[in-house]
Design a protein that fits this description.
- By secondary structure, the protein is α+β, with helices and mostly antiparallel strands.
- The chain has three helices and ten strands, in the order H-E-H-E-E-E-E-E-H-E-E-E-E.
- The strands form two sheets. It has a six-stranded antiparallel β-sheet with strand order 2-3-4-5-6-7. Strands 1-10-9-8 form a four-stranded antiparallel β-sheet.
- The chain is elongated and about 90 Å long.
């Protein structure tokens, strides 16, 4: 083969190498970006995961429905209230009421999701229970809240939210605002 036959191949290879270098440099030029996730968007994502059925202490069946999120940006927390149905053993009656809990938002970069941590039960209201039984049930509700917080993401990032301008991003920081979350994404290195 002559040198003239190699020229088109050399040009194509050179153009491909330059294009790869330009694309690689673009990923280093694109820095962190902030994305706002509204309360309504978080609410919609959470509603898809309900109802939740839990067996607590191998005895009580608890069904949680109607999740309702609210933001507490001054405390860097999110409040979550749910309707609860509790079926105690040996009683053919279901107790109905509500649970209100709150927690601090944390990122789980492995699962590309936002979860509640440091969960606390703020209020228990089960209609069939008197005040002392409500306090006792609050301890059980604490177990439910803890399980719920570890297993149920408040928001999961979609694959298209993790790509921008051909660059793969990872969520690295979140901040609670009065209207939702501000999530900082950084390019994958």
């Amino acid at each position: 083969m002559t040198l003239t036959a190699f020229r088109p191949l050399l040009k194509t290879t050179a153009i491909a190498a330059i294009a790869c270098a330009v694309l690689a440099s673009c990923s280093t030029l694109i820095g962190p970006r902030d994305v706002n996730v509204s309360l309504a968007k978080m609410q919609q994502g959470l509603e898809r995961r309900f109802p939740i059925d839990k067996r607590v202490l191998s005895v009580l069946d608890v069904k949680l429905t109607q999740p309702q999120l609210s933001l507490q940006p001054e405390r860097e927390r999110v409040a979550l209230s749910v309707d609860a149905s509790v079926m105690p053993p040996f009683i053919r009656q279901t107790w109905r009421g509500s649970l209100a809990m709150s927690g601090r938002l944390v990122l789980d970069a492995q699962r590309n999701a936002v979860y509640l941590s440091e969960a606390s039960v703020d209020k228990v209201n089960i209609a069939a229970l008197d005040e002392s039984q409500q306090r006792q049930f609050a301890k059980v509700a604490s177990l439910v809240a803890d399980q719920l917080m570890h297993e149920t993401p408040i928001y999961t990032f979609k694959p298209e939210e993790l790509r921008y301008a051909g660059v793969q991003f990872v969520p690295t920081r979140i901040q609670t605002t009065s209207s939702g979350l501000t999530v900082t994404f950084e390019p994958v290195k």
